[in-house]
Amino acid sequence: MKYKLFGKTGLRVAEICLGAMTFGEEWGTGANKQDSKKIFDAYTKAGGNFIDTANRYTEGTSERFLSEFMGLDRDRFVIASKYSLYDRRDDINAAGNHRKNLVRSVEGTLKRLNTNYLDILWLHAWDGTTTPEEVMRGLDDVIRAGKVHYIAVSDTPAWVVATCNTLAELRGWSSFAGLQIEYSLIQRTPERDLIPMAKNFGMAIVPWSPLGAGILTGKYNNQLPQQSRLTEKSAKLNEKNLTIARKVSEIANKLGVTATQVALNWLRQQHTQVIPVVGARNIDQLNDSLGCVSFTLPADAMQELQQISAIELGFPHDFLASPGVQDVMFADFKGNLINHRKLS
Predict the structure, then answer these.
(1) I want to staple 155 with a disulfide (CB 3.0 to 4.6 A). Which of 23, 36, 100, 125 is the partner?
(2) Which of the residues 57, 83, 150, 183 is marked catalytic?
(3) What's the whole-model pTM score?
(4) CB 36 within 8 A of CB 70
(5) Residue 26 lies in domain
(6) What residues of the chain score a pLDDT lower than 70?
(7) Is residue 119 within a helix (H) or strand (E), and if so which, with residue range?
(8) 202 and 88, same structural domain?
(9) CB-side exposure of 180: number of CA atoms within 13 Å?
(10) Are residues 337 and 255 in the same domain?
């Protein structure tokens, strides 16, 4: 395992982040304590030190398991948790981005993790009711109190993140150092605004669901699962996404690797700051994912994947990139610009 810097912080994290949402069986899809410990041990044995959890994950069991697994070796790990989502249904203020929920959630997480500090605190999702000023001042306060080292943001519009970071830099507060988003070969819409925004601010890009709810592993290429209700997976099981998944498997067969590894490496090769979150319910799944660090996708494979999964960037991106607009903006001198830097 190699390591990357987390945004502009200087914090050193593993190039693959272990997602601990599968630690615990409360949601019906996770691993029991024994299997969770095996996954944790295998990840750390491979050199991993970056683990992602949340106050909501498996009703708090994920954080409690991590506390036991780390033991006395807490300082070795970079632990990221989240606040915003409810952990009590009977309290209107037990959810949201506001300061009361922030402080309450952080205290609960620290207690479950049996630690004095969090390395990274993610704002889990933008609630649309708390102002950027209130959010960023509250987050800066928990850093100044020594309870959190760095802050980051997940599942939030690009314009909101840009507003928050600009405001924080203007006021001398801590700003978001990382962006967690759904991003994969079957979900490339963050390329419109979120990813360019993150690059502009020097933020780490941490994709969740990098395998598209398992579709990119190839397990549905020939037979769709029986669906009794609408789920994240069933909503994504369409012909376009299956065509992409089949191309991933085709390239994997040519290279002698797995479809999982191809899908992860497409992500990792998009930008140096991309650090995928991989989850696992057993050792085999984890080892399959970690195998991606042992090779690089060749240029022709990257090109095939780019083409088959391409999206329209929409207005104004496609408009600004069109030959006519480029001509009226640069005339005959575009090729003569020195140190021309594309900002998107």
Answers:
(1) 125
(2) 57
(3) 0.93
(4) no
(5) 3-311
(6) 226-233, 337-344
(7) strand 118-123
(8) yes
(9) 24
(10) no
